[in-house]
UniProtKB/TrEMBL annotation:
GO terms for molecular function: DNA binding. This is Transcriptional regulator, TetR family. It comes from the Bacteria. Residues 32-51 bind DNA.
Length: 209
């Protein structure tokens, strides 16, 4: 991708924006490279000159979107609470903010991971596993598990909580996708009250009574 990387930023952004929108809206299988080049104002030959194939273009975009979203996420981190449930609350607030800022990038990544095209399954599985190992370890480091029951396997408990929180996160993302971040923050107590009802259920099965 060196030839693409060497382009002027304005042209690179125009191509990336057109390709991300096309794949995010239509998915990999139905996405049209003809539509991409038309929106980007380039020829189809040039697009394939840069990326070689539709598959390579999509994998490049997948990596680009994840890297961009992670770069947006980390500056929002402050002093992370050691309690896993409090940390998840902050993570979900940040996630909602980033989804609102970059909806198409989030849609592309989410669709790619949850509904992997057969042609790309091996590459996407490997990439997703690699990114998860790299970033989740940093996000969930220094957690306090002292409140967990002694007979609980703390690693499995954290994994279960993560699965549940991811599901909740997607629920709130859909619920508030058309609401501004400022409005969400203004009503954060109402959001957290609902969120905490689910957390209490998880705590009951994980924390010491």
């Amino acid at each position: 991708m060196e030839k693409f990387e060497s382009l002027q930023e304005e042209k690179k952004k125009r191509i990336l924006d057109a390709a991300i929108e096309e794949f995010a809206v239509n998915g990999y299988d139905k996405a049209s490279t003809n539509s991409i080049v038309k929106k980007a104002g380039i020829s189809k030959g040039i697009l394939f000159h840069y990326f070689g194939s539709k598959k390579n273009l999509f994998l490049y975009l997948f990596d680009y979107c994840i890297t961009t979203l992670v770069d947006r996420y980390y500056p929002l981190r402050e002093n992370e609470p050691e309690d896993i449930f409090e940390r998840f609350i902050r993570i979900n607030i940040r996630k909602m903010k980033i989804v609102q800022e970059e909806p198409l990038m989030n849609q592309l990544v989410f669709s790619a991971v949850t509904n992997m095209p057969v042609e790309l399954k091996a590459e996407l599985t490997e990439r997703h596993s690699s990114y998860s190992s790299k970033y989740l370890g940093e996000i969930f480091e220094n957690l306090d598990t002292s409140k967990f029951r002694e007979e609980i396997d703390s690693e499995k408990a954290i994994e279960l909580i993560m699965i549940c929180m991811d599901g909740l996160s997607n629920k709130y993302i859909q619920k508030y996708k058309d609401v501004s971040m400022e409005e969400i923050l203004e009503n954060i107590e109402e959001v957290m009250e609902d969120f905490n009802k689910y957390l209490d259920i998880l705590k009951f099965g994980v924390y010491k009574i």
